[in-house]
Amino acid sequence: MNDILRTIHERRSIRSFKDKPISYEVARDLIQATLRAPTAGNMMLYSIIKVDDPELKRKLSESCDNQSFIAKAPLLLVFLADYQRWYDFFLRSGAFELCQQRGMELRKPDVGDMMLAVNDTLIAAQTAVIAAEGLGLGTCYVGDILEKYEYHRDLLKLPKYVLPVTMLCVGYPRDDADDRAPSRRFDEKFVVHSNRYYRLEGLELDVMFKGLGRSKLEEGAANFGQDVYLRKFASEFSVEMTRSVQSMIDSWKA
Question: What are the sequence ranges of the domains in the chain?
């Protein structure tokens, strides 16, 4: 196994960081590698906010489900789907006047453009994760940035066509950080399909989830499926995430 594959296979989320700042040079190398991520049409439909201000990190740790490790990370990277930059450039380039000359209606970014920007954003974020590993840094994704859209929009001064998609905590792993093996993944046969999608049925689902789960289930849950349903899928944070994302879509389309 070569070094790149080994890095991918051994990567795990890190939530305990050393009290060690990330140097300008290391942060620069991380960002420069991230900017080499594949991107649709070389448009780079994303922006990144580097957060090292302690007060802003504290606010984000509170808004993202009160997870204290977020505030302790030396660096946060907020990844944003960004069509504002291109739309502003279109207007500056005379796109509105061009449309008038041709009798066309000026087209604004729509949900398809939003999804394309989200794709670009997540590709960049994962590129940052792998680059961080190569620099001796650990990372942890924080999906809670999808919640409380209005608060995060105002906190980060996001314009209309810029949306928070994910956030990375970045830092040097502590020596006593969790050294468990990487989390188990589903077997390839349940995830990778050949030429068409194959929907799993009863016993196949049982086999796929066999051996997974926690020793202590959520109160009222009789099995792992019910546990995840109550603890995650039907939880307050999941409901809020749906409300928040719908608000993003509505704002984008307004």
Answer: 3-183, 189-254
* Distance of alpha carbon 89 from alpha carbon 93, whole angstroms: 6
Dihedral sign, CA of 50, 54, 55, 59? positive
Phi, psi of 77 (to 5 degrees): -120, 115
At 221, list the tokens: 């849950």
Helix (H) / strand (E) element for 61: namely helix 54-63
**What confidence tens digit (pLDDT) does each residue in 51-60 have?**
999 999 999 9
pLDDT, average across residues 156-169? 99
Residue with structure tokens 């109550």? 230
* Residue 180 pLDDT > 80: no
Q: Considering the chain, what is the average pLDDT of its residues?
A: 95
As its CATH architecture, domain 3-183 has 3-Layer(aba) Sandwich (3.40)
